[in-house]
Amino acid sequence: MTVVTTHRLGEPCWVDYAASDVPRARDFYTALFGWTAEEAGEEYGGYLTFLKDGHRVAGLGPAMEGAQPNTWLTYLLVEDAEAAEQTAKKAGAEVVAPTMTVGDQGRLAVIADPGGAVVGLWDPEQHRGFELVAEVGGLAWHELYARSYAAQVEFYTRAFGWSTQVLGDTADFRYVTFGDPSSPAGGVYDADAMLPPGVPSHWVVYFGVADAAAASERVVELGGSVVRDPWDSEFGTFAQVTDPLGGLFFLHQVRSRE
Fold first, then answer.
1. Is the pLDDT score of 148 beyond 60?
2. First vs last Cα of the chain: how many Å apart?
3. pLDDT in tens, 45-77
4. How far apart are CA 92 and CA 97, in angstroms?
5. Domain 139-253 has CATH 3.40.50.1980
6. What is the CATH number of domain 12-124?
7. Is the dihedral of CA 79, 82, 85, 87 positive or negative?
8. How far apart are CA 162 and CA 135, in angstroms?
9. What distance in Å separates the CA atoms of residue 224 and residue 166, rounded to the nearest whole number?
10. Closest by Cα among 29, 99, 16 to 60
11. What residue ranges of the chain are covered by domains with CATH 3.10.180.10?
């Protein structure tokens, strides 16, 4: 089992879900991935932490007023949330939620990049982020669907020090990965021609499953829907699904390393 204890600066370190119906979302994700839900104290507003085999995977909380409900939010690791917020703003980002302290867990801010994709910044104290990577029931990949591809890649490179590697650079498939070339943390996809009208740039998350086809069937049994049936590629087997509240995510078939 690949247990992560540290994350690289500027790269994804946490994801959480803002739900319009927390109990329904909790029941769906625990049933689908075999997660358990640990409730934080009242001072954290009903926030839940999902665990897989005792390891932190993701969070869940009620959607805040004015925030888009039923979406997954990716957080990037920063050393100083307030400084990172200002750096991002100077590089062209819009501040959605200014830096705030979350008890003894850490500090966070939320920004929208120059292409409109919303992403969180996490400056950790007690909460160090997700602990499972590329495992069944863990985070498997992070991806930015970009409408302003070149500008967004440049933004993250400037604001967060990303090192990128070109995976494809054609009209049909324009994509870079970011992070250590031997173990990239995620990718940026030029999705402008693919996204429906009115759908802005956004981050998506992939969760590891043992069997993408079986997991897709389970999604439907639990009240979700399959947006794209499982497909094979040179990078693995994937499926695109939504939960019962409409929250979009991907399934990535992985081989668990016990």
1. yes
2. 5
3. 789 999 999 999 999 999 987 678 999 999 999
4. 15
5. no
6. 3.10.180.10
7. negative
8. 24
9. 34
10. 16
11. 12-124, 139-253
